[in-house]
Amino acid sequence: MTIPNEDAVPDSPLSAGGIGPHDTGDSIGALLTFAQACGPASLLSTLRSDPARAELQAILAQLDPVRLLSFLHKLCTADFSDKREVLELLLAPGPSGSGQTLRGTLQALHRQDLLARIFRPDRVQALRHACRLLVQEPA
C-alpha cells in the first residue's frame, strides 16, 4: 500500500457510517479502497476504535470462507509493517462475538485442511499396504 497524501485522508467508511454489518459485498471493496487511499497508519488507528473494529468484524464474519481467506490474504500480502497488529485486532474477542466467530472459522478451515492432508488417498493407500505387509510377516 502506498500513502498518497497524508493530509488528504478520506473519511473512513467504517467510522463515517458508510459500512454496516449487512453491506458485505461493496463494504469490503470500500474498506480496501479506503485502506489504499489513507495508508496503513490510518487503517490501524481506525481499527483500534471499538465501533469500527466491531463493524468490520461483523462484516467479515458474514463472508463465505473463500472471500474471508481472500481478504485476509490481501491484507497479509500488503506492503506495510503492522499486518500482525491488524490481524490481532480483527480476531480480537469482543462483545458482539464476531472476533470469536472469525477465529472459529479460521480454526475450522485449518482443521479441514489438516484432515485432508492426513487422509489423502495416497497416504491411506500406503498405510493399508504397510498394514498388509505387517500382517503377512511370520512372527
Description:
The chain has helices at 24-38, 40-48, 50-62, 65-77, 83-90, 98-118, 121-136. It starts with 23 loop residues before the first helix and ends with a helix. It is elongated. With 139 residues, the chain is mostly helical. The chain has one domain (6-136).
Main attributes of the structure:
single chain, 139 residues, disordered N terminus, 7 helices, elongated, mainly alpha
Element order, helices and strands?
HHHHHHH
Please state the average pLDDT score: 78
Put simply, the count of helices is 7
Report the count of strand segments.
0
Global shape: elongated
Distance between the termini: 66 Å
Strand residues, percent: under 5%
Which parts are unreliable, with pLDDT below 50 for 5 consecutive residues or more? Answer: 1-10, 15-24
Counted up, domains total 1
The class by helix and strand makeup works out as mainly alpha
The Cα radius of gyration reads 21 Å
- Largest sheet, if any? none
What percent of the residues sit in helical stretches (DSSP H or I)?
55-70%
